[in-house]
């Protein structure tokens, strides 16, 4: 499997308009979507035009064929009203923000040039071509190996500040109920801020494809968000022999340039249907009131905390970790000593830590109200790279008061890093 270490703790930060393309923020790694996760501003315009995708493998379906497969690909809601409303605004010349939110595929994994061959810039290019007189901005908030639960907590920091008008979200494949709750929380935050904001949910395809939970589909239905399934289109082509897995991916999940292009073209085929309806009618689109949540909606008031914006009750021998990598603003300990102590009242606490390929002597012990509840080994021996798993400390329907301790256990060595705290109040 191709290493994804560059993507797993990275944040693809790009801002385009039809006259400018902004280069990615510099980061101490390389990769198709390399940019520091903590960055949250588009970088300085470089004056480069967005470029269309490269020549594609003729075995893959083109947009005309994909348009005929839309009934097969649409597995949930096919509601188009919000997207049509955004397009009507674009036809009137109103400036728009197009976004991509999701995991490593949205961040551009396996595309050899993020700006030219990954799915979200390809979708952005369609908007530019359809609305040449309108300023269309673009921002990609994809982070590899992340989740909808992480996304809802980072929404204010990374997403809402850019006021998205149209967003492609790729948190659908195989989500559990816990993740569906995060998915709904993200959608609700976006719609509360901008009721007219339009979204489209895509289900990606791994070698062993999953399907979204019924709860996930119910969330999309509740808010009128169309759902397109890549497996519904790809799997018949694999079974018939038209394509082999190597055509689609060099590993078990991340698509090739041709795969990125096919996903983008599937989305664009749906957008073309919306465009025809938007241009055929002058009737304004009316947006109804926000419906009650489908899930418990426990992440409605949630945020990301790290050493730059949160002070523990006691730091113990844990210190802020500062360097030029994506691990900047973590908390670090490399020997036994006093614990880092949190005292908080919250509905839930989740933390992300570094799982590392570097040999690490220490373990991470987590205690709640004086009782040990977790022992975590941060070693990722023979893994593909460092990444950030999430661990749930507690989750409740109402806010609870708890004292949490993080303890380094073991002989001195490579630092154990706590990347962030996800707190829902």
Textual characterization of the structure:
The protein has two domains: 5-280, SGNH hydrolase (Rossmann fold); 302-424, Galactose-binding domain-like (Jelly Rolls, Sandwich). Helix content is 27%, strand content 22%. It contains 13 helices and 13 strands. The protein has helices at 5-8, 63-68, 70-73, 81-91, 114-117, 119-130, 148-153, 155-158, 177-193, 214-222, 230-240, 245-248, 257-280; strands at 96-102, 136-142, 166-169, 198-203, 227-229, 302-305, 319-321, 330-333, 340-353, 363-368, 371-376, 390-409, 416-424. Helix 9 links the parallel strand 3 and strand 4. Helix 9 packs parallel to helix 10 (214-222). It is globular and about 65 Å long.
At a glance:
With 425 residues, this protein is α/β, with parallel strands linked by helices. The chain has two domains: 5-280, SGNH hydrolase (Rossmann fold, 3-Layer(aba) Sandwich); 302-424, Jelly Rolls (Sandwich).
Based on the structure given, which CATH architecture of the largest domain is correct? Answer: 3-Layer(aba) Sandwich
Mean pLDDT: 86
Strand tally? 13
Morphology call: globular
According to CATH, the fold-level topology of the largest domain is Rossmann fold
- Domains counted in the coordinates: how many? 2
Beta-strand content estimate = 15-25%
Q: Distance N terminus to C terminus?
A: 39 Å
Q: What proportion of the residues is helical, as a percent range?
A: 25-40%
| Element-by-element helix/strand order | HHHHEHHEHHEHEHEHHHEEEEEEEE
Low-confidence blocks of residues: 1-53
């Amino acid at each position: 499997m191709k290493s994804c270490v560059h993507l797993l703790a990275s944040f693809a930060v790009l801002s385009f308009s039809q006259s400018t393309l902004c280069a990615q923020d510099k980061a101490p790694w390389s990769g198709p979507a390399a940019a520091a996760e903590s960055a949250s501003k588009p970088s300085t315009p470089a004056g480069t035009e967005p470029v269309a995708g490269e020549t594609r493998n003729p075995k893959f379906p083109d947009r005309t064929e994909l348009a005929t497969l839309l009934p097969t690909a649409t597995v949930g809601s096919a509601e188009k009203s919000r997207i049509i409303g955004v397009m009507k605004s674009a036809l009137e010349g109103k400036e728009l923000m197009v976004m991509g939110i999701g995991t490593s595929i949205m961040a551009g994994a396996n595309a050899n040039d993020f700006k030219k061959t990954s799915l979200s810039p390809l979708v952005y290019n369609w908007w530019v071509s359809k609305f040449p007189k309108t300023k269309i901005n673009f921002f990609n908030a994809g982070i590899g190996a992340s989740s909808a639960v992480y996304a809802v907590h980072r929404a204010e920091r990374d997403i809402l500040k850019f006021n998205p008008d149209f967003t492609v979200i790729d948190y659908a494949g195989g989500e559990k109920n816990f993740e569906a709750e995060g998915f709904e929380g993200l959608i609700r935050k976006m719609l509360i801020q901008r009721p007219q904001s339009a979204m489209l949910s895509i289900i990606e395809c791994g070698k062993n494809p999953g399907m979204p939970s019924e709860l996930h589909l119910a969330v999309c239905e509740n808010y009128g968000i169309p759902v397109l399934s890549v497996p519904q289109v790809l799997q018949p082509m694999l079974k018939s022999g038209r394509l082999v897995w190597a055509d689609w991916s060099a590993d078990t999940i991340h698509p090739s340039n041709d795969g990125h292009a096919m996903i983008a073209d599937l989305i664009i085929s749906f957008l073309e249907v919306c465009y025809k309806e938007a241009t055929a009618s002058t009737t304004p689109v009316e947006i109804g009131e926000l419906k009650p949540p489908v899930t418990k909606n426990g992440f409605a008031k949630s945020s990301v905390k790290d050493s730059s914006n949160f002070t523990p009750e006691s730091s113990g021998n844990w210190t802020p970790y500062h360097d030029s990598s994506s691990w900047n603003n973590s908390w670090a300990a490399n020997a036994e000593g006093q614990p880092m102590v949190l005292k908080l009242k919250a509905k839930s606490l989740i933390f992300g830590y570094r799982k590392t390929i570097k040999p690490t002597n220490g373990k991470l012990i987590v205690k709640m109200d004086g009782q040990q509840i977790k022992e975590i080994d941060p070693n990722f021996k023979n893994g593909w790279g460092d990444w950030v798993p999430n661990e749930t400390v507690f989750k409740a329907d109402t806010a609870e008061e708890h004292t949490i301790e993080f303890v380094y256990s073991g002989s001195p060595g490579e630092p154990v890093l706590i990347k962030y705290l996800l707190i829902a109040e």
